[in-house]
Amino acid sequence: MLKTLRIILSIGVLTLALYGLITKNFEYMPYLMMVLSFSILTTGLIELQKDKKAFWGYMSIGVSGFAFYVSIQGFILR
């Protein structure tokens, strides 16, 4: 379930990033950051489920929180 969600979110991140690079229209950057934060969150949750390297799982969740904060800032400052 989480692996499928990670793949779908990664495709969404790639699509939004390519759209911004090709069209030079960065209006959707907060959406890109939000989808990226969810993608990193699922990666962290997968790492915690593996229970091999718990540090990287917690680090991914922390980075996800920061990326989510940046996306919220992008929505507010628009």
Description:
- It is a single chain.
- With about 80 residues, the chain is an all-alpha fold.
- It is about 85% helix and about 0% strand.
- The chain has helices at about 1-25, 30-50, 55-75.
- The radius of gyration is 13 Å and the shape is globular.
- The mean pLDDT is about 90.
State the helix count: 3
Rg result: 13 Å
End-to-end gap: 34 Å
- Residue share in helix: over 70%
Tell how many strands the DSSP assignment holds: 0
* Major beta sheet summary: none
The arrangement of helices and strands along the chain is HHH
Low-confidence parts: none
Structural class by SSE content? mainly alpha
Task: Kindly summarize this structure in a few lines.
Helices cover 86% and strands 0% of the residues. With 78 residues, it is mainly alpha-helical.
Question: Which tags fit this structure?
Answer:
single chain, 78 residues, 3 helices, mainly alpha
SSE topology sketch:
Layout: H1 2-23, H2 29-50, H3 54-76
